[in-house]
Design goal:
- About 80% of the residues lie in helices and about 0% in strands.
- It is mostly helical.
- The protein contains five helices and no strands.
- Helix 4 runs antiparallel to helix 5.
- It has one domain.
Amino acid sequence: MSRFIRHNILWFLWMIVVMGLYAIPGSDLQSMSFWQAMSLDKLGHLTCFAILSLTMAAGFRKQTFSRQLNAHPFRYAILLSVIYGGVLELIQGAVFVERHSDIFDFIANSLGAVFGIVIFRIIYGRELSRTKF
């Protein structure tokens, strides 16, 4: 179990950071034009969730506690990242101050999760990944 935690602590901590970013009140966000905010916002969502799924897939691939996670790290990394992104969007609209849920943010989160796996395959190559989607 300690090896599982050691290999997966990075993405877990990143989840906390992402939740903190979601919790920033809307009034504290930098004001800019609508189109600037939209493009930067979506890029931020995509980047955060690419990092999440990349670190999650790497952790799942390295750990030996769960054969299922080790055998299908991409599938579980994308699934968990997309679910987490959806839950955060719902929470953002219901709980966080001066924030709202946005389907386009959820789409950016989901695309970021897939993009993180693409980056994983580029960095580590097919030999290390040796797992099919």
